Amino acid sequence: MRVFLFIFFLFTISFFFCQDSISDKLEWDKTNKNTKELNDLLSDPLNLQFFKKLKPQHSNSGGANKFNYYYKPNYNGFYYRYFVFRGFTTDGPHIITYKKGMNVSGYMDTSEVFIQLSSDMVDKDLGKINLLSFSKTEILKKFGNNYLSKGNTLIYQYNKTLLIYTSLWFKVVRTNKTFKNFSEIENAKDLLKPF
């Protein structure tokens, strides 16, 4: 009887752990299409001004690293990071923007351009991009089968914007190129790291 219970226990555990697993998919399948919901999300992932109004002047901020895959507007400026918002420690949302000119300006600067959002915590203030409130199965239902995957990582792409999702963190990045496959993404410095 103990052997039977042990085997049943192992089967049950493996069922729950494998439920959200999918096989690796390292090349884009040109026959698959993004869902409208995904395209809409990646076209406008975060209303930065609205989000900052919900988190007034409660973040650390400073210069951000520049990666060669980041989108860059056609004017002089610099990349800037917001992090440690109210209610979070070093975890939670990290936002990178591109600021015009050489001055930081104020927290509510309307001239900055969204570049990247990454988060390892659920935050309802993120609105529609609060993706950690969904399982991998729910993400697949919402956004469809036009993705790359390896291990626990799903990657969607639309108009040079990537969505990288794991069950522990996600990242949305506006890039200056369209990535051709998983290997190219994997070789881009720090792209597959949460922060």
Provide tags for this entry.
single chain; 195 residues; alpha+beta; eight-stranded antiparallel β-sheet; 8 strands; disordered N terminus
Into which percentage range does the β-strand content fall?
15-25%
Question: Kindly, what is the distance between the CA atoms of the first and last residues, rounded to a whole number of angstroms?
Answer: 49 Å
Total number of distinct structural domains = 1
Biggest beta sheet summary: 8 strands, antiparallel
Describe it:
- The protein contains five helices and eight strands.
- The chain is 24% helix and 23% strand.
- The longest helix is centred in the N-terminal third of the chain and has 17 residues, at 2-18.
- β7 (161-165) and β8 form a beta hairpin.
- It has one domain.
- It has 195 residues and is α+β, with helices and mostly antiparallel strands.
Secondary structure: elements and pairs:
Blueprint: H1 2-18, H2 36-43, H3 48-54, E1 60-63, E2 77-83, E3 94-100, E4 113-119, H4 136-143, E5 148-150, E6 153-158, E7 161-165, E8 170-174, H5 182-187
Antiparallel strand pairs: 1-2, 2-3, 3-4, 4-8, 5-6, 6-7, 7-8
